[in-house]
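Hi there, hope your week has been kind to you so far. Would you mind checking whether the tokens look sensible for this chain? I owe you a coffee for this, so here goes:
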Amino acid sequence: MVKWARAACSIVLGLVMAGSALAAAPKKVEVTFWHAMGGGNIAFIERMVADFNFTHPQIEVKAEYKGSYRDTLNATILAHRQKKSPHMVHIFEVGTQMALDSGIFTPFAQGLEASALRDLEDYIPPVANYYTINGQFNSIPWNSSNPVLYYNKDIFRKAGLDPENPPKTYGEIMKAAEQIVRSKAAVKGITWPLHSWFVEQWISMQGALLANNENGRAGRATETHLDSPAMMRTATWWKELYDKGLYAYSGKPEDWDGANKLFVSGQTGMLITSTSDVTFHQAAAFENGYALGTGPLPAPDGMERNGVVVGGASIWMTRDKSPEEMEAARTFLLWLTNTENGVRWHKGTGYFPVRTSSCDVVKNQGWFEKNPAYTAAFEQLLSTRVNRASQGALLGPFPEIRTIITDAMQQILSGTPVEKALKEADTRADKALQDYNRSVK
């Protein structure tokens, strides 16, 4: 009886001790990450998140694809009103001013230790230039891109063009496209999606501004410059390409896939699109049996190249979370964008490495020698001048203004005089700015 009692006491004591140990075990900090990367990138992101969770057992990150950039931002605003916002949100670059004005987010750099703040200095200048607002990083750069020229070297050879010397100016593009069509090497010379992003890039390339108050960087923008000489120059060139039957238009605005298909199928000899498509186009060239070349975004003739604006998106942290959750989110974002993962992300997606240390790694590995299609984007970004034009505009209703610009270009291609379409677009955009600015006062 005594032995049984002692045994029972030992079991009870053991259970109590085990229960105490379980109760004392640290609880995982759970944080959510909403992103707008669709297609094959969803699985890639899930693998990266799984790697983080495995190596950081005290944190559980849950990644969710929320649709397009606009869908993701709208979903976040709604979730905030319902007090169900995620911890981290993926927002496109033109949503920056809206994100700042929303009051939903907290500056990423706030609360970082000195060593982590020094780590932010690793971002290459054109990237840091865009995301530095009021002297600090408000969000952490992630998928960054710019537009480059893709061309089919086999079509160039058939047309009698130099396959190792792509056109670099508006005039050279015109001549190359004419030669491609005239030689019947392809049906059309060139294509790109009818999208405002390309117009914005060509404005920056000319060192011009999209809005007043130094592109909205020295103070809130109150007027746009959609009828500027830089805009006129670009729209006139685009219209001339179209009127001469050299530019292929899929028939739908913002049709990225349509432009890609026109090029991959050999209907055009050239394509201008995002550097994030390099991996896709390398694979397409291999599968369809043609040699792929890349070159810089063409610039107006006789003008010094100023450079491009960083495209893509960054990741923002929402406010009103516990200190433990905020720290977990920062830990994840610094891990996701560290040197090693910057290289991994670049090689797996085509988005260029945004850290100097990541750039050094891929260069030392001989990556560009083995994958020359990536070189144009890399060199173009590093040669971009750091100024207000390449820093990009901060506009509250930027998504709406993009639609206005796209509408104007569609009208121009349909026959509306360039000057008339741009003046009307400028008036519409100014009103959108004024309405937005009143709403946030």
In short: The chain has a mean pLDDT of 92. The domain at 29-144+310-374 is CATH 3.40.190.10 (D-Maltodextrin-Binding Protein; domain 2).
